[in-house]
């Protein structure tokens, strides 16, 4: 991955960061890098995620999915970090396997998704690091029941990825299901390059080695200066921009297949950095679609945003057919790829001309190698940003509160958080 931070410089944008400030910040980057390397060396919680390119064993993952090698569809049951990494990988890459991610408990939606699947040719991928997440466990029970009702033995078609203990681990043991371990020390949102993200990739027939090799190549770029390391250049620039008022980071890939990447990034950035009243709010956008929806705000609204573009070489192009309509004739000389590129360049320039900070992330094409590198780089950028903010990047205590309240409401134990639901202040306006 390459990064271009030119349009985030104070000479070009407001807010922006001056070259001199970046050089001062680079001293903190050097210290943070030492801390990160130490954490990786000692396999400390969280930092261990950056060791995944060497730790993950593709053969083990392929062996676990062997029993479902005939699958025409894959339903992944997981949420947050146990779903978004896998979804990012399989949505980005071409495959004949139909993939469904059950990461919500909307009953209508779940029923429709299950009805559309050929269950006798469908594999189930259940993922939960803790093995206790209510949404995931509930959805798994619903999926099992659907298989039972269709007369398909779900125990023959299920792969479990979870921690060392917990209800999901017990269930896998009880039914002797093929199971893989969420690696120790790796929080869910940093686990895309482990079994958590790669079981789905394996079922879809993607090149697991290339994903890890791309990540390993980015690991080699981690260095004590943001000017030598694209991942750190991005993390440090986003942090510096936030410090100067860009509290929102709108991530805008220019590829339909990378839309899920923006969702994955949003969890990574929000859960890792959003603590101690600090953090930058990630916003999901998509080029070119959102040029016609959000761009007005980005260019002319409050100066509180960084726009992060992600561009990739297109794998396949398609000419725009010629037409006799005079005003449209110019399109006939171009391809859709040319149009996409021109729209990106025009949008980037339009923000720059209005002095709005933006950063460009570039990958060569959308394939396993580049994708592995992109995911790894963003994780490293996030870990660096966490060091600069001085927050605990690898915890998410604020998420636990609502989890406990939900459990209390459903009679899953005594949780005082559940009382807050009854104590809600109302000021209703009714029709
Ligand atoms: O993998 P699980 O334990 O099921 O957790 C799934 C997700 O749920 C939680 O609420 C956390 O905030 C996320 O970081 C996590 O990725």
From TrEMBL:
Record localization: Cytoplasm
Family statement drawn from the similarity comment of this UniProt entry: Belongs to the GPI family.
HAMAP family per the UniProt record, alphabetical: G6P_isomerase
Keywords linked to the UniProt accession: Cytoplasm, Gluconeogenesis, Glycolysis, Isomerase
Entry function: Catalyzes the reversible isomerization of glucose-6-phosphate to fructose-6-phosphate.
Keyword tRNA-binding: no
UniProt-listed Enzyme Commission number(s): 5.3.1.9
Pfam family, one: PGI
Protein species of origin: Natronobacterium gregoryi (strain ATCC 43098 / DSM 3393 / CCM 3738 / CIP 104747 / IAM 13177 / JCM 8860 / NBRC 102187 / NCIMB 2189 / SP2)
Identification of the protein by name: Probable glucose-6-phosphate isomerase
GO biological process terms held by the UniProt record: gluconeogenesis; glucose 6-phosphate metabolic process; glycolytic process
PROSITE patterns: P_GLUCOSE_ISOMERASE_1, P_GLUCOSE_ISOMERASE_3
Gene Ontology terms, MF aspect: carbohydrate derivative binding; glucose-6-phosphate isomerase activity; monosaccharide binding
Classification via InterPro entries: G6P_Isomerase (IPR001672), Phosphoglucose_isomerase_CS (IPR018189), SIS_dom_sf (IPR046348), SIS_PGI_1 (IPR035476), SIS_PGI_2 (IPR035482)
Catalytic reactions on record: alpha-D-glucose 6-phosphate = beta-D-fructose 6-phosphate
Pathway where this protein functions: Carbohydrate degradation; glycolysis; D-glyceraldehyde 3-phosphate and glycerone phosphate from D-glucose: step 2/4; Carbohydrate biosynthesis; gluconeogenesis
GO CC terms of this entry: cytosol
Active site: 271 (proton donor), 292, 403
Predominant cellular place of this UniProt entry's protein: cytoplasm
């Amino acid at each position: 991955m390459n990064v271009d931070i030119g349009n985030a410089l104070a000479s070009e944008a407001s807010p922006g960061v001056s070259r001199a400030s970046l050089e001062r910040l680079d001293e903190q980057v050097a210290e943070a890098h030492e801390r990160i390397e130490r954490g990786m060396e000692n396999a400390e919680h969280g930092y261990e995620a950056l060791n995944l390119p060497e730790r993950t064993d593709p053969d083990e993952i392929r062996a676990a999915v062997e029993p479902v090698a005939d699958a025409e569809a894959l339903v992944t049951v997981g949420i947050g970090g146990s779903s978004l990494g896998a979804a990012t990988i399989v949505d980005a890459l071409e495959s004949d396997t139909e993939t469904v991610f059950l990461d919500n408990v909307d009953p209508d939606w779940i029923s429709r998704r299950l009805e559309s699947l050929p269950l006798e040719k469908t594999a189930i991928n259940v993922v939960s690091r803790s093995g206790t997440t209510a949404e995931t466990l509930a959805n798994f029970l619903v999926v099992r029941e659907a298989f039972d009702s269709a007369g398909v033995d779900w125990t023959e078609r299920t792969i479990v990825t979870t921690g060392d203990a917990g209800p999901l681990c017990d269930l896998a043991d009880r039914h002797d299901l093929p199971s893989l371990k969420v690696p120790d020390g790796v929080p869910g949102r940093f686990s895309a390059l482990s079994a958590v993200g790669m079981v789905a990739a394996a079922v879809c027939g993607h090149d697991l080695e290339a994903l890890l090799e791309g990540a390993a190549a980015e690991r080699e770029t981690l260095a004590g200066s943001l000017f030598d390391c694209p991942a750190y250049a991005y993390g440090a620039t986003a942090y510096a921009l936030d410090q100067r008022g860009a509290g929102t980071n709108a991530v805008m890939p220019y590829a339909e297949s990378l839309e899920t990447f923006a969702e994955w990034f949003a969890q990574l950035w929000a859960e890792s950095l959003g603590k101690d009243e600090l953090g930058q709010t990630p916003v999901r956008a998509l080029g070119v679609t959102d040029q016609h929806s959000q761009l007005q705000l980005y260019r002319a609204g409050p100066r509180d945003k960084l726009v992060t573009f992600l561009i990739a070489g297109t794998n396949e192009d398609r000419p725009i057919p010629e037409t006799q309509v005079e005003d449209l004739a110019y399109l006939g000389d171009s391809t859709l790829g040319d149009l996409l590129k021109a729209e990106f360049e025009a949008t980037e320039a339009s923000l720059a001309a209005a002095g709005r900070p933006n950063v460009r992330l570039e990958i060569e094409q959308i394939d396993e190698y580049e994708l592995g590198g992109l995911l790894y780089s963003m994780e490293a950028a996030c870990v660096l940003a966490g060091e600069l903010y001085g927050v605990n990047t690898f915890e998410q205590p604020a998420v636990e509160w609502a989890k406990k309240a939900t459990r209390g409401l459903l009679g899953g134990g005594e949780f005082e958080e559940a009382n807050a639901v009854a104590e809600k202040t109302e000021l209703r306006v009714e029709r």
